[in-house]
Amino acid sequence: MASVSVIIPTFNRSRKLMRALHSVMKQTFRDHEIIVVDDGSNDDTYQALGSHMTMIQYVRKQVNQGVSAARNSGIRRASAPWIAFLDSDDYWLKDKLSVQMQYIERNPGALICQTEEIWIRDGRRVNPRIRHKKPSGDIFDRSLKLCLVSPSSVVLKRSLFDEIGFFDEALPVAEDYDMWLRISCRYPVHLIEKALVVKEGGHEDQLSRAYIGMDRFRIRAIVKLLEGGMLTHAQQRKAIEELSVKCRIYGEGCMKRGRKEEGSFFICLPERLASGEELLSELIGPYTWGDEPCV
């Protein structure tokens, strides 16, 4: 059995997928299996993978179901005790897995660690803003504001998913924000201060570019977390503070654009949650699948 299961979800990215796949095959750490989950591609992905089929597990879905469903399919098929994700538009430097597995061996209590990244935007290297600087250890409070963990940078214990649950397939985006909050409210997320992942952004098929008003998805994740009873009192307070900020900004944006019912719903959401109203995460559902986001 391999030590690490590497899961690569992909959809209509045959060229970038091959670059990602080759970056895994070139890893100095060799004790891994590779699971490529083709989420309903209708390009030449299958043909591009042809010569590599004997070296990977290939999961082909007939219909595109989203990145969460693709990652979850990979997790279910994984045989290794550790999981690593690699988005098909990113790629690894050759020592990525080796450095992380050495860190895990030296720190046996660590259940999840991530590395620093090299950011490429529109073909040029850029420096992350200060607010994107990755913390290490207890990252929960800062992670409420924005996602500070990249799926392509993490290695985590497979058993975490049995405790925390899988990626939320009802979230078309911000599914990683939701996952890291569920993990970081219980466990430290360790940072290896070495850039071992190349993350590309700015391209047309980038998932986050398909949805404006990303805070509506983060709002749903926070509400779900609050309703789940996973948080300490201090964490609840921080989550409610951030929820209030996000709801006000998003709700006011809706109101300005004439979507008064939606705006009122989000503005009043923190108060309804504080009053003990249940299943608000389900009521948010229609607003987190809409095609016409407000802000």
Quick structural summary:
The protein has 295 residues and is α/β, with parallel strands linked by helices. The protein has 2 domains: 207 residues, Spore Coat Polysaccharide Biosynthesis Protein SpsA, Chain A (Alpha-Beta Complex), CATH 3.90.550; 74 residues, no CATH class.
Query: What is the overall silhouette?
Result: globular
Question: How many extended strands?
Answer: 9
**Structure annotation, total helices:** 11
* Biggest sheet character: 9 strands, mixed
Nearest-angstrom radius of gyration? 19 Å
Mean pLDDT: 92
CATH class of the largest domain: Alpha Beta
CATH architecture of the largest domain: Alpha-Beta Complex
Structural class: alpha/beta
Full CATH superfamily name of the largest domain: Spore Coat Polysaccharide Biosynthesis Protein SpsA, Chain A
The rounded distance between the terminal residues' Cα atoms is 47 Å
Low-confidence stretches: 290-295
Instruction: Report helical residue fraction.
Output: 25-40%
Under CATH, the topology of the largest domain can be stated as Spore Coat Polysaccharide Biosynthesis Protein SpsA, Chain A
Helix and strand run: EHEHEHEEHEEHEHHEHHHH
Number of domains: 2
